[in-house]
Write a structure and sequence with these properties.
The protein is about 35% helix and about 20% strand. By secondary structure, the protein is an alpha+beta fold. A 4-stranded mixed β-sheet has the order 3-2-1-4, covered by helices on one side.
Amino acid sequence: MIKTVNRKDQTRKRHQRVRLKISGDAQWPRMAVYRSTKHIYVQIIDDTTGTTLASSSSKVKELNLKHGGNVESAKAVGADIAKKALAKGIEGVVFDRGGFLYHGRVAALADAAREAGLQF
């Protein structure tokens, strides 16, 4: 009998392992990334109060992105979230890749946020 592999289950398991080790607080909130096939989303979350402090995605109209599922849009979203975080006085975050491999769009978003001045 062949056991099939479900990618969503694998991602969910990786995310659970990551979340056991990573938590955000008021000084170092958690920057959570979600990547779908068409878009990329990012939130800055204070886990002690359970509130979202800032968010951005490739669906934001101000970014004027034609396609949300590529590396260029991930870079734009990373720069946008860094700008919003710095405006709210957040200088450092804990990066939560959300079970996704640190490669491609996730890495591009992280690098763009670092270049825009966010520390993690």
